[in-house]
Design goal:
Elements (H helix, E strand, L loop, with lengths): L2 E5 L4 H17 L4 E7 L4 H7 L3 E5 L15 H19 L3 E4 L5 H10 L4 E5 L6 H6 L5 E4 L13 E3 L15 H8 L6 E6 L6 H13 L6 E6 L2 H13 L9 E4 L5 H7 L2 E4 L3 H10 L3 E3 L9 H10 L5 E2 L5 H14 L1 H12 L6 H10 L8
Parallel strand pairs: 1-2, 1-4, 2-3, 4-5, 5-6, 6-7, 8-9, 8-11, 9-10, 11-12, 12-13
Helix pairs in contact: 1-14, 3-4, 6-9, 7-12
Length: 373
C-alpha cells in the first residue's frame, strides 16, 4: 500500500480534475491511502469529502496583483501554510505528491520536494502560472494538456496527458432524448448552450441578450442558458422587460445546470468561456463552440487556451471586448453553415483525451519507489 497526497483546488476547474485523478488511482490500486490538501474556505473543503476522501486545509490565499490591503497578510499566510504543510506531509509520509494547481499546491509541493519526496504537477493551461513554472525544476514529471509547453518547462519532464474531465460526459449521443425531456426542449430546434462558468459571465450574458433582441421570429433556435446565480434574478427581470420571457419561445434560463452531461447532449452549438477544463470537456463532447475568453484571469491564460483551438479551426474565438457587438453575427453564420460545423466537430474531437485521469494516475504511480508500487 502506498500513500499519496493530492494538493490544490480553489475552483471547480482544479477540484474536479483532482478528484478524477484520485478515482483513477483507486480504480487501479484500491488499497492506496489518498490524502488531499486544500485551502480553507475553498470549494475543495466541501467537494473532496463528498467524494469520499480526507482533506486537510491550509490558511492560504492568493496574492492580489492590484494594490490592496489584503496583500499585507500574504507573507504571514504563506509562512504559516509552509509550516502547516511540512507538518501534514511529515505526519502522513507520502510516497508521491500530485499538485493540481490552486492556492494550496505551491506550499505542499515546495515542502515535498525539499524533503526528497517524488512529485508531479498537472498543468491544465496552455500558459502556466508562476508557481508551476517555479516548481518545474523540483518535480519529476509535468503532465500537460497543450502542445508547445517546452517553452515553459524542461522538455524531458513533460508528458502529454490531457486534462481530466467528469466521467459522465461519455456516451452523450445516447442521452439526447433524455436531455431534451429533462430541460423541456424541442427536439426539432437548434439548441444553443450558453455556459459562462458556474458563477456566470457578465459579458456573455449581455452578448446573448443582444442576440435574443436581434433574432428574427422565424429562426428555429432555442437557448439553454446557464447565466450564473449572481446574475439570474436581475437578468430574468431585464429579459421580461424586453418581452423575452424565460420558459417561453425557446428561452430556457438557469442559474446553474447540475446535469452538464445532459446539457452537452442536448446542444448543437456552444458558447463558452475558455477555462482549461471547460475546453477539455468541449473537446470530449465534440460540439462546435464559440469561445469568449475571460480577461479577468492570471496572465490572460484563457485567451491563450482559446487560441490553441482557434489555430486548429476547432473553435471560433471572439475577444471579450468585442462579444456584445459580434456574437449575434458570428453565431448566425455558424448555425447556417453546416460544413463549418462539421469541420469544427472533427477538429475539436481530434484534440480530446478521454483517458487523461488514467494517464496522470499512471505517471504518478510510476514515481513511487519500488517496494511500494
Amino acid at each position: 500500500m502506498a500513500k499519496i497526497i493530492i494538493s490544490g483546488g480553489g475552483t471547480g476547474g482544479h477540484v474536479f480534475p483532482a478528484i478524477a485523478i484520485a478515482n483513477a488511482i483507486k480504480a487501479m490500486r484500491s488499497d492506496d491511502d489518498i490524502l488531499f490538501i486544500g485551502a480553507k474556505g475553498k470549494l475543495e473543503m466541501e467537494k473532496v469529502p463528498a467524494a469520499g476522501y480526507r482533506i486537510e486545509g491550509l490558511a492560504i490565499a492568493g496574492f492580489q496583483r492590484r494594490l490592496t490591503l489584503k496583500n499585507l497578510s500574504f507573507p504571514f499566510k504563506l509562512l504559516g501554510s509552509m509550516i502547516r504543510a511540512r507538518k501534514i506531509v511529515s505526519d502522513f509520509g507520502p510516497d508521491v505528491v500530485i499538485g493540481v494547481g490552486g492556492y494550496a499546491s505551491g506550499p505542499v509541493l515546495r515542502t515535498a520536494t525539499s524533503m526528497g519526496i517524488p512529485a508531479l504537477i498537472q498543468e491544465q493551461n496552455s500558459y502556466p502560472g508562476v508557481t508551476n513554472r517555479m516548481l518545474a525544476t523540483k518535480v519529476q514529471k509535468i503532465c500537460v494538456a497543450f502542445a508547445g509547453m517546452e517553452k515553459y518547462f524542461p522538455a524531458k519532464k513533460l508528458v502529454m496527458t490531457g486534462n481530466p474531465i467528469r466521467q459522465d460526459l461519455a456516451g452523450l449521443e445516447g442521452k439526447r432524448i433524455e436531455a431534451i425531456g429533462h430541460f423541456g426542449l424541442s427536439g426539432s430546434r437548434t439548441t444553443v448552450l450558453v455556459i459562462g462558468g458556474s458563477l456566470g459571465a457578465g459579458t456573455i450574458n449581455k452578448s446573448v441578450f443582444n442576440c435574443l433582441k436581434a433574432r428574427k421570429p422565424e429562426e428555429n433556435i432555442q437557448w439553454l442558458w446557464q447565466c450564473g446565480k449572481y446574475y439570474f434574478e436581475n437578468l430574468s427581470k431585464d429579459l421580461k422587460a424586453a418581452g423575452l420571457i424565460p420558459g417561453e419561445n425557446g428561452l430556457h434560463l438557469h442559474a446553474f445546470i447540475d446535469r452538464m452531461d445532459l446539457a452537452y447532449s442536448a446542444s448543437d452549438v456552444v458558447i463558452s468561456r475558455a477555462g482549461a477544463i471547460a475546453i477539455s470537456e468541449l473537446c470530449a463532447t465534440g460540439r462546435p463552440v464559440i469561445l469568449i475568453p475571460s480577461p479577468n484571469v492570471t496572465d490572460d491564460h484563457q485567451t491563450k487556451n482559446a487560441m490553441a483551438l482557434a489555430h486548429r479551426k476547432a473553435a471560433i474565438l471572439i475577444q471579450d471586448n468585442e462579444a456584445e457587438v459580434k456574437l449575434a453575427d458570428v453565431l448566425g453564420g455558424l448555425i447556417s453553415n453546416k460544413d463549418l460545423q462539421g469541420e469544427m466537430k472533427k477538429n475539436i474531437l481530434g484534440m480530446a483525451v478521454p483517458d487523461a485521469a488514467d494517464r496522470i494516475a499512471k505517471e504518478a504511480l510510476g514515481l513511487i519507489k519500488k517496494g511500494k508500487a
